[in-house]
Design brief:
Structural class of chain B: mainly beta
Largest interface: A-B, 26 and 26 residues
Distance between the termini of chain A: 41 Å
Order of helices and strands of chain B: EEEEEEEEEEE
Radius of gyration of chain B: 13 Å
Helix content of chain B: under 10%
Low-confidence stretches of chain A: none
Largest sheet of chain B: 7 strands, mixed
Largest sheet of chain A: 6 strands, mixed
Oligomer: heterodimer
Mean pLDDT of chain B: 90
Structural class of chain A: mainly beta
Mean pLDDT of chain A: 92
Number of strands of chain A: 12
Chain lengths: ~120, ~110
């Protein structure tokens, strides 16, 4: 079974600084997708960034980027120039490309951006 | 554009009472639908998912059930609520069984069982 582990229940960062959220996963699949989702205090979950396992290049979306280490099964999220609006729960998620199972989420990391 | 609605947003129910949470999706056809529960410190737990009308897959044994009476309608129910059913329930949809992975979430329903 696939598992996703986020080892940091809570983190904080000063506004304008950079923070990295950790995520590791376990799978026997060779092709899959990894995601970071953001859940702001308003509660509606949105997709932040997606990485396809067969792509070696790390995905980036504006201030958000990932460090994907396939051999180590690691998928960390880096937020640059942190903003107050980045305060949220962040969930790492995994799905195999076989399409036979739904998305598997980690337990989340609560990030607080401090002014 | 596609939208997803779920209601009620907040619900306070006594132990042993029934439950019905409803979710509807607009702007797409034949979506895959999901019910997740979010409890403090436990992340997102997948409860049910559906790939079509009347097709429900259960991920966790519990006193909850799900139904999909229409293509874009997904209902979470219970005949008798337990204290442990308290939590934040999220409905979501995707195209296909998440072949590209992206889920679109509703705004959530906060259930408190007293």
């Amino acid at each position: 079974a696939q598992t996703v582990t986020q080892s940091q229940p809570e983190m904080s960062v000063q506004e304008a600084e950079t923070v990295t959220l950790s995520c590791t996963y376990d799978t026997s699949e060779s092709n899959y997708y990894l995601f970071w989702y953001k859940q702001p205090p308003s509660r509606q979950m949105i997709l932040v960034i997606r990485q396809e396992a067969y792509k070696q290049q790390n995905a980036t979306e504006n201030r958000f980027s990932v460090n994907f280490q396939k051999a180590a099964k690691s998928f960390s999220l880096k937020i640059s120039d942190s903003q107050l609006g980045d305060t949220a729960m962040y969930f790492c998620a995994f799905i195999p490309n076989s399409g036979n199972t739904p998305l598997v989420f980690g337990k989340g990391t609560r990030l607080s951006v401090i002014a | 554009s596609q939208t997803i609605h779920q209601w009620p947003a907040t619900l306070v129910q006594p132990v042993g009472s029934p439950l019905s949470l409803e979710c509807t999706v607009e702007g797409t056809s034949n979506p895959n639908l999901y019910w997740y529960r979010q409890a403090a410190g436990r992340g997102l737990q997948l409860l049910f998912y559906s790939v079509g009308i009347g097709q429900i897959s259960s991920e966790v044994p519990q006193n909850l059930s799900a139904s999909r009476p229409q293509d874009r309608q997904f209902i979470l129910s219970s005949k008798k609520l337990l204290l442990s059913d308290s939590g934040f329930y999220l409905c979501a949809w995707s195209v296909g069984l998440a072949s590209t992975g992206e889920l679109f979430f509703g705004e959530g329903s906060r259930l408190t069982v007293l």
